[in-house]
């Protein structure tokens, strides 16, 4: 059974694809009906990606008012990170018994979407594990770029901004782990170079020294 767009009430199908809102309305929308370019659909419909329509985002944002001329912004950011730390404690319980080398996880915390890659204890000598995370306010259209992730601990996100798409990466490269470093650098090279046949000469020893800082 086909779904219909909440805005125009027309069917959503292969010829006229759409997005499902993960907000309170739980409705479908054509990309054109919410002023999104068709090129944004693949990243917004990728596994682990959550998108919210403008109406749902406006309702959430209405409770978050910041005076740019005050210290409220700093207090708000600090409170957000405290909330994330508390929530991560419960999330760690969910992933404690997972034996995959890398655990992929996306969670909604407050008005932020948190994208994580956790290192399993079986893949590290550290008893407390490790990993990386990125938190993005959910009024942005975000795509989780799994195809850019490597064997290193890295999270790649595609964020649609006013003026274009921005790629954001959070990464931890263990000092001395040349396999992880080269895997990450190979993907990084594919992103920053205009032509695939171009190459950058990476110096592993120097890069390892930078990682220790």
Descriptive report:
By secondary structure, the chain is of the alpha+beta class. It folds into two domains: 1-63, Herpes Virus-1 (2-Layer Sandwich), CATH 3.30.40; 67-172, no CATH class. Helix content is 28%, strand content 26%. It has helices at 41-44, 54-61, 72-95, 178-192, 204-211, and strands at residues 3-4, 11-12, 18-20, 28-30, 102-109, 112-119, 130-137, 141-144, 153-161, 164-172. Strands 5-6-7 form a three-stranded antiparallel beta sheet, covered by helices on one side. A three-stranded antiparallel beta sheet has the order 8-9-10. A hairpin with a 2-residue loop joins strand 5 (102-109) and strand 6. The chain is globular, with a radius of gyration of 20 Å. It starts with a strand and ends with a helix.
Feature tags:
213 residues; alpha+beta; Herpes Virus-1; 2 domains; three-stranded antiparallel sheet; 5 helices; 26% strand; globular; disordered C terminus
């Amino acid at each position: 059974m086909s779904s219909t767009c909440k805005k125009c009430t027309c069917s959503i199908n292969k010829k006229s694809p759409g997005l499902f809102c993960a907000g309170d309305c739980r409705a479908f929308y054509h990309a054109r009906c919410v002023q999104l370019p068709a090129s944004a659909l693949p990243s917004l419909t990728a596994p682990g990606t959550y998108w919210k329509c403008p109406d749902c985002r406006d309702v959430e944002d209405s409770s978050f008012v910041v005076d740019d001329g005050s210290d409220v912004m700093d207090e708000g950011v600090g409170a957000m990170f405290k909330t994330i730390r508390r929530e991560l404690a419960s999330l760690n319980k969910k992933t404690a018994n997972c034996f995959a080398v890398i655990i992929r996880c996306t969670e909604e915390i407050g008005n932020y979407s948190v994208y994580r890659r956790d290192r399993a204890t079986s893949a590290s000598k550290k008893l407390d594990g490790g990993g990386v995370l990125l938190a993005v306010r959910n009024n942005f259209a975000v795509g989780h770029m799994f195809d850019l992730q490597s064997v290193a601990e890295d999270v790649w996100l595609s964020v649609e901004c006013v003026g274009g798409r921005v790629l954001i990466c959070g990464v931890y490269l263990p000092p001395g782990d040349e396999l992880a470093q080269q895997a990450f650098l190979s993907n990084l090279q594919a992103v920053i170079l205009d032509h695939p046949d171009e190459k950058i000469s990476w110096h592993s020893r120097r890069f390892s020294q930078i990682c220790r800082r």
